[in-house]
Amino acid sequence: LRFDEKVRVVVFKSEVKGVFCAGADLKERAKMDDAEVGHFVKRLRNLMDEIAALPVPTIAAIDGYALGGGLELALACDLRVAASSAKMGLIETTRGLLPGAGGTQRLPRCVGIGLAKELIFTGRQVDGQQAASMGLVNHAVPQNSDGDAAYQRALALAKEILPQAPFAVKMGKLAINRGIEVDIASGMAIEGMCYAQNIPTRDRQEGMAAFREKRPPQFIGK
Length: 222
Fold this sequence. Notes:
four-stranded parallel β-sheet; Enoyl-CoA_hyd/isom_CS; lyase; Enoyl-CoA_hydra_C; ECHD2 protein
């Protein structure tokens, strides 16, 4: 996906009705020794980092349970859409664990430190509406009879992104992701570097031309 220039947006959904991702299989985990657990979680953390590093926008469609590592997967995405009835939480402390695949880092960046601490310390589960109110998800929608309301809303969101200039969107994502980790002066420099890469693109010229000619732009990602 990272190297496929035809890919503009990636939507993560589950093929299992009622469950986005239920997290680690604790029965499987119980059979591992300490070293194996550490290796497993490190690989899982690396996977989430790879998802977060995808250059195109990513959307998690949460139509059911997103627990533990399942919510960490959703947090690794840029945007999250949930059914109102979905349940999500970093429940690791209820099992004698702590989030180990990015949850302690991405949740505070998403909802703020105080709320993230409360959710992680208590292992509390929240529904889609509660998640929307705290900024954990971008949109909460009523579940439909097919059980894929979040996926349908995620597709609609993806279709809003698709017409926009692909390279500009990629640079926007890069600037946000890198800039949020540094002070604002450094962030401005990062934005400047990303903007400079966008200046010579054919899409920027097309955007200007389309504006002058009062027509929709036809972006090609170059």
